[in-house]
Write a structure and sequence with these properties.
about 210 residues; Rossmann fold; 7-stranded mixed sheet
């Protein structure tokens, strides 16, 4: 399976530097320019998609519907397994406030947020889901629209990186990750859009091939 992974459109809470998680927010300024950028890159590559998956949060679902329409795909498969981390009681809070009163925020992947979950829990559910897709749809190409936290988690897992060190890597709204699987294992990773912090920060080189078996 080949999975092309991208992020949802920018929201007002993204612009306001607030915690979102499972909460949704209206579209931000110039939200469509990022979608148009991704769409143009996918068209240039002439990638033929078999299906589109999305988290069931509105910002992801609406982005996926736009891409699906542009690709001529009639429907989007939604799943809660691709949701962003559940920040629980901290959702809608300013990120500066969270960092001040929760010093382990984005420092400890096992920190469980009040009435929410941990980054590690979010990583397990999203990685498990994508691994199952790779087994079920071997030979197909799937567009996956999801969230920055999920993207950091799946890159860290499939490229065998220390997750703790990656919790703050930049994932832009113009990110396009290209994961190529053999069974449930990612054999090759590339980026087709605006480089992630993993690449611009020198953590990985692309294309990146998994060495261990």
């Amino acid at each position: 399976m080949r999975a092309i992974v991208t992020r949802h459109y920018k929201t007002r809470y993204n612009e306001g530097d607030r915690i979102m998680g499972w909460f949704d927010s209206p579209r931000g300024r110039d939200w469509k320019s990022d979608i148009d950028f991704v769409d143009a890159r996918l068209r240039k590559r002439e990638i033929e998609f078999d299906r589109v998956y999305s988290s069931d949060l509105e910002r992801s679902r609406q982005t996926a519907l736009i891409h699906a329409r542009n690709l001529g795909i009639g429907e989007v498969d939604e799943t809660p397994e691709l949701k962003e981390i559940n920040y629980g009681k901290l959702e809608k809070m300013k990120k500066t406030w969270v960092s001040r009163f929760f010093p382990q925020h984005k420092k400890n992947p096992d920190l469980v947020y009040p009435s929410g979950e941990s980054f590690r829990q979010m990583q397990r559910r999203s990685v498990g889901f994508i691994s199952s897709l790779a087994q079920t749809y071997a030979g197909e190409t799937i567009l996956i629209v999801t969230h920055a936290g999920v993207i950091r988690g799946i890159i860290s897992h499939f490229l065998e990186l220390d997750y703790t060190a990656q919790l703050e890597q930049k994932i832009s709204f113009r990110y396009i990750g290209d994961f190529q699987f053999n069974g449930g294992r990612c054999k090759r990773y590339d980026e087709l859009g605006e480089p992630s912090g993993f690449v611009s920060g020198g953590m990985i080189e692309i294309p990146s091939c998994r060495q261990s078996e």
